[in-house]
Amino acid sequence: MSVDMSQFFEVFFEESHEHLDDMEHLLMELSLDEPDIEDLNSIFRAAHSIKGGSGVFGFDALTGLTHVMENILDLARKDELEMTKVIVDQLLNTVDTLKGILACYQNEEDIDWSTIESGTIALEKLLKPTDEAPNDANEPQNKDDIEGFGLFENAVTNDDDAFGFFEPVENESEESAYGFFEDEEDSQKTDSATTNQANAQDDNDSFGFFVDQPSADKVEKPAPKSKKPAARKPKSETKDASSIRVDTMKIDSLVNLVGELVITQSMIKIVGKEVHGETEEKLEGAIGELSRNIREIQEAVMSMRMLPMSFAFNRFPRVVRDLADKLGKDVELIIEGGATEIDKGMIEKLVDPLTHLIRNSVDHGVEMPDVREAAGKTPNGTVILNAEQRGGSIVISITDDGGGLNRDKILEKAMANGLDVSEDIEDADVWPLIFEPGFSTAEAVTDVSGRGVGMDVVRRNIESIGGSVEIESHQGVGSIFRIRLPLTLAIVDGMCVSVGKQTYVVPLTNIIESMQPTKDQLKTLANDEVLWVRGEYWPLVQLHKLMGIDGAKTDVSNAIVVLVETSRKRFGILVDDLEGQQQVVIKSLEQHYRRVPGVAGATIMGDGSVAMILDIESIAAEIKTPSKQEVPLAS
Known about the structure:
The protein is of the alpha+beta class. Helices cover 38% and strands 18% of the residues.
């Protein structure tokens, strides 16, 4: 009976990406003085798993390259090859090549076989083969030239017979290939292959790339080192719990269904107010129990969408390492708070802004070693990437101990761009200027983005997921970029306010306080009402005018003001009444209706009505902040 192997492709692609990420992380953390044997074994097993699975599925470009990589790692873990920076760099380059090949197979694109051949040659050089030159080494290769890999009749596979396909494995890091067959033995045991398997491996060492290329077993091996091997890391206890892969669309559907449950529960609660007598008490108890259960279901479902920040953070040590080497700097990246969880959808949208900010910190934040020493600093710089949860928000900070932002250059550039600034403005108002479109103080354009190049895109991407970014900088000390984000894009904690007969939701993350102003606090500037509170003037947004609502309170002195803030400015929103705090499920208004200015989405209230969720960031962008010349002296 033939089996359609394509049904397993997606699992293979996902797990291969995970293996490659693990390999990159472990290679970055590997100590060259005393490599940890468990780290080497884990890197070997990852390469071994990709080779095995790719052989089963016929992805020959992956199989050949991972086999040569596996040979190097096998010698290293047997203490027969000394790991050096050159070897680690080449292995990291190979990981990049494998990611590209994997993407080509996944997207059904053509494979660049010349890249594979050059990568294989570079790896083979690390094995220090004998002087016997391979025949026809430069002969063009293609996937039809690659022999065997256990795909054809009578081929003998080495170590990869089962590829771990059915029975679940004990430890995911030791999984050979994708949990489809029986769990294979520990890879260290399978390394001692039988004579027939060893012969088969010798026959397949070149994988069609080189003729008569010496295999790892034929390489002249140096004498074993006398130093004591690094101690093995203790294995974590085996857990009975297992994990399964679930499409995020199914989770999103479940989130929506739970949202409908919340709405239905609110409806039942409203209807329950019409019931009286003994039944009323029983109904209230049942509704209370239902509310608690739905809340727990909602939290459990939302937790399925949450991933640790390490999913995004773990790619940046490589970014910092490669960029620092290129610039001739010594920069250490310290990651803190990687276990902090955030919505999966937000992690994917955070990668580009974080990459830009970190590259700028290394390139233009941290000084060259000689400059740092002249300033009394250590020659090596430090960049700290931190994530922590504060209330209902996640705060991500990128801190460097470099030279800090140059106030004078920023002001000079701002004036040259025609921005309305003065030389005596506060530092806190100077730093955000670098987020203006086309703003850069870089004296030379390089292939590494300067601090300020494309920063408007960084801010726009962060604001698109409901976040904000702020800067703190000190000359000669360093800079801190802080990104504040909601925990999830699916649910928002908000304050329900009414204007006329319409209800709106203001996200709590933006609210400072709500108040009913006195006449003395209300001023008029250029025919616009402003509010004097907290020692400053706040522009006022009349929500009924913004949204075109009839029947609202037009007398400003009788209205309620909700004071809000964004990364750009502070202002007040005039509303009729406060209805109370509520957690709401966000529905896409654009998907079901059309985009409405100033609105981030919609939600369904307990009585079945629709409430708009305000987009405070976009509203702030339309507000004109009074200049100092317009502001009267406070009475």
